[in-house]
Amino acid sequence: MTQKNIKDIDSKWYARRVLITGGAGFIGSHLAEMLVNTDCFVNVIDNLSTGSIKNIEHLMDRENFRFIMASDSDEIVMDRLISKSDVVFHLAAAVGVELIIKDPVRVIETNIQGAHSVLKIANRYRRKVIMVSTSEIYGKQNNPPFAEDSDRLLGPTTCSRWCYSTTKAIDEFLSLAYHKMYGLPVTIVRLFNTVGPRQSGQYGMVLPRFVKQAITGKKITVYGDGTQSRCFCNVSDVIKALDDLSLCKEADGQIFNIGSTEETSIKGLAERILELSGRSKDKDSLKFIPYEEAYEEGFEDMQKRSPEISKIKSCIGWEPKVKLDDIIKGMIEYEKSKL
Ligand code: UDP
């Protein structure tokens, strides 16, 4: 990477200066790429714990892009970056159901400390924050679609899955409190299952995993009986919603669901992936694995999860455009290119 001169960056005109925490991750890198192609200056901060330099290396030589390898809980670095930003997209988080089960200490510390540092410093300089939260907030509620003001239903604290939902709820409470007490312009977004190129199957994430299994001739590992359902939204739709909300004053102090409403069972997803990748759909191509074997004893899954999206639609006119079949085709192409 060519060394960028800070003075040049500071003195040049840009429509907006944005900071993306976790910008070397899956969603953050897509957002960075989209904004670099506008007249914004894009700072990405990432400690590369789950993000990867590979996700952003194609942006490194762009004059309106800078990567800072640091943690978002490093308040000295964050103060400097946020003071020079118009908006902070807080995407850095420990995510993925497998990571949550394997390393709950990291999940709790990362998710709470990072958000607190962003909110505290953004408030110091009155900067807009997009606080990225999750559909896990709704827990195991079984009456979707979930609206932003729906009740939450969580299992016991002995089931580590719920610590993720709880840390994100703390981030939401803290964001709402900063808005209420100090008028901080912060918008909370709850992302439902988001998919697309660069998503890693390493920490769970069913779609990249199934696609990789399908194209390498392996059995598709369906957890439980596969009747549980999800709605998958393409990352290109999600980043558009994030950017539009960051420009919308009426969104301050509000919570929005972002997700697709096209629902599929996980078994149905496996079969569609087999079909679109040219594999036969006989019963031997699927391998059903009990939850306690896939995760841990006492694991609780959500049977159904889909968002109510009328609120975001009436605020910024957003709705998802990419259909599930096209998402799967794109993922097959992407995973094949990596083989
Ligand atoms: N899943 C599966 N096989 C896998 C990985 C995940 O059947 O190899 C299931 C998982 O149990 C869940 C769904 O796929 O019911 C979505 O999982 P993911 O971790 O992608 O997201 P979640 O919605 O659970 O956060």
Short description:
By secondary structure, the protein is α/β, with parallel strands linked by helices. It has helices at 6-11, 26-36, 75-83, 97-102, 104-125, 161-182, 206-215, 235-246, 266-276, 291-294, 310-316, 324-338; strands spanning 16-21, 40-46, 65-69, 87-90, 128-134, 186-191, 194-195, 220-223, 229-231, 233-234, 255-258, 263-265, 286-289. Helix 3 packs across helix 5, helix 7 packs parallel to helix 9 and helix 7 (206-215) packs across helix 12 (324-338).
**CATH H-level name of the domain at 3-193 and 235-259 and 306-320... which superfamily?**
NAD(P)-binding Rossmann-like Domain
Whole-number mean pLDDT:
94
Structure classification: alpha/beta
Biggest β-sheet description: 7 strands, parallel
Widest sheet: strand order?
A: 3-2-1-4-5-6-11
CATH architecture of the domain at 3-193 and 235-259 and 306-320: 3-Layer(aba) Sandwich
Count the DSSP helices: 12
Order of helices and strands: HEHEEHEHHEHEEHEEEHEEHEHHH
Unreliable stretches (pLDDT < 50, length at least 5) are none
Radius of gyration, whole Å: 20 Å
Termini separation (Å)? 27 Å
Task: Tell me about this structure.
With 339 residues, the chain is an alpha/beta fold. The protein has a domain at 3-193 and 235-259 and 306-320: Rossmann fold, CATH 3.40.50. It has twelve helices and 13 strands. It has helices at 6-11, 26-36, 75-83, 97-102, 104-125, 161-182, 206-215, 235-246, 266-276, 291-294, 310-316, 324-338; strands spanning 16-21, 40-46, 65-69, 87-90, 128-134, 186-191, 194-195, 220-223, 229-231, 233-234, 255-258, 263-265, 286-289. The strands form four sheets. Strands 3-2-1-4-5-6-11 form a seven-stranded parallel β-sheet, with helices on both faces. A two-stranded parallel sheet has the order 7-10. Helix 2 (26-36) crosses helix 8 (235-246). The model has no long low-confidence stretch (mean pLDDT 94).
